[in-house]
UniProtKB/TrEMBL annotation:
It comes from the Bacteria. The keyword Transcription applies. GO terms for molecular function: DNA binding; DNA-binding transcription factor activity. Residues 13-116 form the Cyclic nucleotide-binding domain. GO terms for cellular component: cytosol. It comes from Paramylibacter kogurei. Residues 147-221 form the HTH crp-type domain. The keyword Transcription regulation applies. This is Crp/Fnr family transcriptional regulator.
Amino acid sequence: MQRNELTFPKSTFLGQISQESWNILSSAWSTHLYSSGQFLISADDSNSDVFFVLRGAAKATIYTDKGREISFISVATGDCFGEFSAIDNSPRSSSVVASGECLAASLPAEKYLELIKTYPDMTFAALSILVSHLRHLSKRVVDFNAKSADLRLREALLELALKNTRNAEEDNVLIDRPPTQSELAAFIFSSREGVAREMGRLRKAGIIGREKRSLRIPSIEQLRKTIANSH
């Protein structure tokens, strides 16, 4: 697969590396197509391969002793995951599950470590991703302790909307195949019933809308205002 066949956001690992690094990576990895709900990696797995999402998305999740799902980070096109185990040689700390059809590439840990030690652009990309994860998780801890579940849901919807915009000026956004209410609940540390109630209120207020299997955000600016008014 050629790089010009794919588009990666600049904030992702694959969006930051050079063409030379892409050529080296793509010659060393193996690709696999995963169906929706299929596990790419499982928690406590001893495998230490590093994965790169070429198309589609996935979510990192863990399950409590009572079987409750807690989803704490989304993995989108261009992102990599599994590098923690490659770096510290410890078992996986979470499972990663495909959100819809997902094309991913896997690279042996030894090769990943060799490359990030050799190529500065890969080193910087790896460091920037780790810093991004740390900032994201730190924010979620603060949000959980300082914000209501309804506010966390609105902010999650805003994050989804912004990820689906084609340019900075776009205000009306259609989110194709959005997360289910259960997935949103897992992401914001709430219940499905609580998410359903708040989604219903937002629909009545015209802040969100449903179009078949898609979610419509008629105005990102209006959603921002509801968030600002909730503080």
